[in-house]
Each structure stands twice: as C-alpha cells, then as structure tokens.
Amino acid sequence: MNLISFDIEEWFIEKKFNGARQDKYVQYDAILSRILDLLEEKECKATFFCLGKIACDFPYVIKRIAERGHEVGCHSNKHLWLTKMTPKELRKDTKEAIMSLEDVYGQKVVSYRAPAFSIGQQNAWAIEVLAECGIERDASIFPAVRDFGGFSVFKEKTPCLVEFNGCTLKEFPICTMQIFGKEIAYSGGGYFRLFPYSLVKKTIQTSLYAMCYFHIEDFIDTPKKMMSKEEYEIYFKEHGYFINRLKRYVKSNIGTGDCFNKMNHLVSECSFISLASADRQISWDLVNKVII
C-alpha cells in the first residue's frame, strides 16, 4: 500500500514572512497545476494537507485541489510547531483550521499532519486534542530522529491505531529504512530529493507500506538564499546559529532541480492512493494498537 501526500503552506508563508511577492504566487500556482495535471494523467488521488489560513487567504488553492477529486486534510492553521504549543493553543488552532478548510472544501476534514511532523513522545497529548477536534486519521508521526519533530521510540512501520488517554486515531506513519543502523526517512521532502531514485523506487516496491510526502518548494529549482539570523529565529523560533542556518540552506536546496521528474517516474512506476482510500481498505480491527 503506497500513499502520496502534499503539504500545502507556501502561499501563507510567503504572505507572512516574505512580503507577498506576486511572482512567487504565480510560481506556486504553476507548480500546483503541474502536480494536479500529473496526478490526473496517472489516475492517482492524493491527500493534500493544507493550512487553514490557505483556505482563508487563498481559497482558490483549496478549490482547485478539491475540484480534481483529491482529499483535503488539515496541516494546522498557521503552521506552528506543535512542540511550541499548549493543548489549549492546539485545540484552538485545529478547530479554526478545520472550520476554514471545510467552508471551502465542502466536506468534512478528518485527516491531519502536524507541521514538521511535530508530534513526539513529549507532546503525545496532541493525539487526544486532535481526536477531540474531530480528526480521525493522522500522518504526523516520524519514527526517527528529526529536526523540530521526530518520534524515535515509535516502532510501528505500517498503519496502526494510536491511543492517548483513551482517545484513538488511525495513524499513517512516515516510512523509514535502516542505514548504518539508523532509521532514516527516504520517501519525501529533502530525503526523497537526496537519495538516488533507484533506491527510493526499490525500497517502495519491496515494502508493504510507503508514505510519500512533498511540498511545493521541493519542486522549485531556483536556489533559496541562506536565511539571516533574524529570519531564522522568527520562523523557526530557535537560535539562528550559523550551523543551523547552513543545514537548513543545504536541506532546502539539495535535489530540487530533479525532484519533479523523480516524482513523475515514481507515480508512473508505482501505484499510489490517498489516506481516505487507504482508510477504506484497511481492516482496522486487525492492526496493532499503540498506547503512547
């Protein structure tokens, strides 16, 4: 079972942090069109995790996705890390996002992905909050060490049920592979851009489950500049040391020039479905339950 997903946030990030440059919106719109056309050509449905603020400020983006028959999920309201939030703040953020998305989407929003996969052992209470807000499916758990997120003690490699304080969600974790004894993601974002296509394809084709995830920025081959210390600290809410900014610069730029072609090959050679479709195919009474 292979799932494909996209995190839709760039329009809001551009407006909030970068001055709402019209040429960037044109670029984002063009890339979204390429993605939607490719998925239609391959008869592939995906889940698009969108910010609530996208629905508020750029509703046409949500409408274009929905009109092509894809699932719209929630990617928070304002793209804040859950590790920086309290349960009360997360509850407010999620409810506002769902309401805004549903107003444009016209359907219930029940799938969720945390920005930066920021649900981990220290804030597992987020599972309870999301369930209380009407979320049924989650794709936030990144079972490896990761900047700003990661749940390295999480051992399930395939869809499962996660429970916290009596509240349960259907979990679709990010998939990993072992390299030199360490769990490393391979199927999305900078990892997908970094690893050879042949390795990614082979790993997916020999696995029982894979979750691919992409951002609009993955497909922009114009080099991004290194953030200033101030820009980094405003966006990431942590110290803008040079090494942190350098790592982010490298991760943001590596492999972007060939990413769309790699994704094109992947959806041509492997079958993918959305979270909603996967949910309908899985016998949830037979999967493992993880109490966290």
Structural summary, described in words:
With 292 residues, the chain is an alpha/beta fold. It has a single domain (2-286), classed as TIM Barrel (Alpha-Beta Barrel). 42% of the residues lie in helices and 16% in strands. It has 12 helices and 11 strands. The longest helix is centred in the first third of the chain and has 20 residues, at 22-41.
Helices and strands, in order, run as EHHEHHEHEHEEEEEHHEHHHHE
Arithmetic mean of pLDDT: 91
Approximately what portion of the residues adopt beta-strand conformation?
Answer: 15-25%
Rg calc = 18 Å
> Can you tell me the overall shape?
globular
> CATH class, please?
Alpha Beta
- Total helical segments: 12
What is the fold named in CATH at topology level? TIM Barrel
Domain NodB homology: 16-292
Protein name: Polysaccharide deacetylase family protein
InterPro entries: DUF3473, Glyco_hydro/deAcase_b/a-brl, NODB_dom, PuuE_HpPgdA-like
Pfam families: DUF3473, Polysacc_deac_1
Features of the shown structure:
292 residues; alpha/beta; TIM Barrel; five-stranded mixed β-sheet; four-stranded parallel β-sheet; 12 helices; 42% helix; globular; Polysaccharide deacetylase family protein; Glyco_hydro/deAcase_b/a-brl; NODB_dom
